[in-house]
Amino acid sequence: MNTTREPAWQEETTAASSRTERVFMDEGPIRVTSARFLVPGNTFAMSGVTSVRHIEKDPALVFGYLLIIGGVFLCLSPSLIAMGVIFVLGGAIYLWKGKGRYNVRLQTASGEIKALTSRDKDFVRRVVYALNEAIVYRG
């Protein structure tokens, strides 16, 4: 069963011209149209975007492992067992709850730009899908 849903495209006329601008995504501060990609603090012209991709960056798991190893060594000393248990539990929770970061990268004539970073993988995939649809629509 496919759980991805096709976005409902909207069309609106821009105030600056009588040209219709198709809206591919409008979720909170993120907006993808046939002409623009708006993120907080930046607006990218879709005419300058040649390709888009998402990058997954794994969480820094080393920190969690170091907490666990340090906790095990602390548990070897009878007076520091409580602190060692806290370190081990903290490291285990960090590894269990650790989420990666996901980036939207735009390729333009001036190079690659990291346009958006989020911990929500599905959200980043929806943004990339909308950007790809905008590029195809633009032609």
Summarize the structure.
With 139 residues, this protein is of the alpha+beta class.
Descriptive report:
This protein is α+β, with helices and mostly antiparallel strands. The chain folds into two domains: 10-53 and 121-138, no CATH class; 61-97, no CATH class. It is built from three helices and eight strands; from the N terminus they run ββββββααββα. It has a five-stranded antiparallel β-sheet with strand order 1-2-3-4-5. The chain has a three-stranded antiparallel β-sheet with strand order 6-7-8, covered by helices on one side. A hairpin with a 2-residue loop joins strand 7 (101-108) and strand 8 (111-118). Helix 1 runs antiparallel to helix 2. It is rod-shaped and about 75 Å long. The two termini are 31 Å apart. The mean pLDDT is 83.
Short descriptors:
single chain; 139 residues; alpha+beta; 2 domains; 5-stranded antiparallel β-sheet; 3-stranded antiparallel β-sheet; 3 helices; 8 strands; rod-shaped
Supply Rg: 22 Å
The overall strand count is 8
| Main β-sheet, spatial strand arrangement | 1-2-3-4-5
Termini separation comes to 31 Å
Q: Overall pLDDT, averaged?
A: 83
Number of domains: 2
Question: How many individual helices?
Answer: 3
Gross morphology? rod-shaped
Uncertain regions spanning at least 5 consecutive residues: none
What is the SS-derived class? alpha+beta
| Residues in helix, % | 25-40%
Strand coverage percent: 35-45%
Helix-strand topology string = EEEEEEHHEEH
**How many strands, which pairing sense, and closed or not: the largest β-sheet?**
5 strands, antiparallel
